[in-house]
Amino acid sequence: MKRDDGFTLLEVLVAMLIGTIGLLGTIAVQQSIISASKNANDAAVAMRLASQKIEELYSRSSDTQVADQLNGLGVISTYAGDVPIWYPKDASGQQIPEHVDAEGQYLRDGGGYAILPQPGELGRYRWRRQWKVVDTGVGLPYVISVIVSYTNDVGEIKTTRLDLERRKSW
Questions:
Q1: 160 — phi, psi (to 5°)?
Q2: Is residue 111 within 8 Å of 98, Cβ to Cβ?
Q3: How much is the pLDDT for 3?
Q4: Could you give the 3-state DSSP secondary structure of residue 155?
Q5: Distance CA 100, CA 127 (A)
Q6: Residue 4 pLDDT greater than 80, yes or no
Q7: Positive or negative CA dihedral for 87, 130, 53, 61?
Q8: Residues 40-50, buried b or exposed e (16+ Cβ, 10 A)?
Q9: Which member of 5, 17, 65, 156 has the greatest number of CB atoms within 10 A?
Q10: Considering only CA atoms, which of 85, 70, 104 is closest in space to residue 144?
Q11: Strand partners, 160
């Protein structure tokens, strides 16, 4: 019996199975790349938001100790060894994180106090930012700490923290 040129049904099915397995592997790799890209973007946003707050606090310089206690870092600092105060606070004085969007816009009420986002705003205001300033003593620098937390796409809480010393000019 002479075999005609062509493929049998079994050969075609095996070839399709091998092709499908290869295609599924490619799709899985693409999903991993997309997830990693989202997580890297979220981490970059968190770092930028922390840097933004560090720069804002660092710029609160004053030439004298009195000016520092009135409008510089002395107003919001605690002394080393004391229980640190994390900012911001809500209207009742409770320490709560500042909810921030990717552009650096944060939620505040009319009095300037931090507020929690509404359920419809949770996607936009995903990053939570807090900061503290510690006065390490006379002639010693302030230590500024900023923490930005966010939940990644698989529900894990990730945290970015930046610390900086700011020398006193007085």
A1: -120, 130
A2: no
A3: 64
A4: coil
A5: 5
A6: no
A7: positive
A8: eebeebbeebb
A9: 65
A10: 85
A11: 148
Q: What is the pLDDT of residues 52-100, one digit of tens each?
A: 999 999 999 888 999 999 989 999 999 999 999 999 999 999 999 999 9
Cα(73)–Cα(54) distance, integer angstroms: 12
In sign, the C-alpha dihedral spanning 134, 94, 100, 127 is: positive
Q: For the beta carbon of residue 74, count every other beta carbon within 10 angstroms.
A: 18
CA-to-CA dists, residue 134 to 137, 138, 149, 168, angstroms: 9, 12, 21, 12
Q: How many residues in total does the chain contain?
A: 170
Q: DSSP string of 1-17?
A: -PPPSS--HHHHHHHHH
User: Any residues with CB less than 8 A from the CB of 166 and at least 6 apart, and which?
Assistant: 57, 58, 61, 73, 141, 142, 144
Q: Are 73 and 82 in contact (CB under 8 A)?
A: no
Give the pLDDT confidence of 25-62 residue by residue, as tens digits.
999 999 999 989 999 999 999 999 999 999 999 999 88
- Whether the predicted pLDDT of 155 surpasses 60: yes
